[in-house]
Amino acid sequence: MKKCIIASTSTIHGSGYLEYILNDLANLFSNTNEVLFIPYAKPNGISHDEYTQIAQQAFQKINIALKGIHSFADPIKAIKDAKGIFTGGGNTFLLVSQLYKNDLLTVLKEVIEAGTPYLGTSAGSNICGLDMKTTNDMPIIYPPGFKTIGILPFNINPHYLDPDPTSTHKGETRETRIKEFHTLNSQPVIGLREGSWLELSNNDILLKGALSARVFEQHKKPYEVPSGSSFANLN
């Protein structure tokens, strides 16, 4: 039984790292006092150690220790032994490249489906979809493939932004990009706004947070769904 929080972001305006979701994380990881952190997306060029320290400070507030997977000699065994897993945000291309390099995609999916609690934010949420093709990130490195762990039957677009009707900018919007994706791909895409997350529990997929989400399905007009809605039948 999957137990996951798949969040659009780690930090919302006016709040500290993971602060807006700490109560839910305490519940998600209530059966363990240690979580394995995957810092491979390492944003802004910081080291794995520095990124892990940032995450550790947040988890200390809910009395959970955090250890970076890069500190283990055998990352596959570290995932198999983990009582909880957190994959942080950053660049999805870099994250997926490192997961392929260390042969971690399959084992990560296996332990999550077996019940290991999982938290993903941003890039760590992107990898929960069927593939990473709806990321917003630049391809700073080329991974061996775009397929990800697929614990969701659709794709995620974290940090989803609505078009600004007052803007004079004529470039592509997120909605335009997702429509382009659907010219060649059939899976639905959930546009997750900042402060929103998906909660996987008891085989259900619930939208949580204060905001609605935007749903994109091939050959259909995009539509809004309110917080509390289930995506269990979206595929």
Automatic annotation (TrEMBL):
The enzyme's E.C. designation: 3.4.13.21
Domain of life: Bacteria
Coiled coil: none
Annotated InterPro entries: Class_I_gatase-like (IPR029062), Peptidase_S51 (IPR005320)
Entries under CDD domains matching the protein: GAT1_Peptidase_E (cd03146)
Enzyme class: hydrolase
Keyword Protease part of the UniProt annotation: yes
GO molecular function, one term: dipeptidase activity
Pfam family, one: Peptidase_S51
Key words of the record: Dipeptidase, Hydrolase, Protease, Serine protease
Family statement drawn from the similarity comment of this UniProt entry: Belongs to the peptidase S51 family.
Family annotation (NCBIfam families): PRK05282.1 (NF003642)
Name this polypeptide is given: Dipeptidase PepE
Source organism of the structure: Aquimarina hainanensis
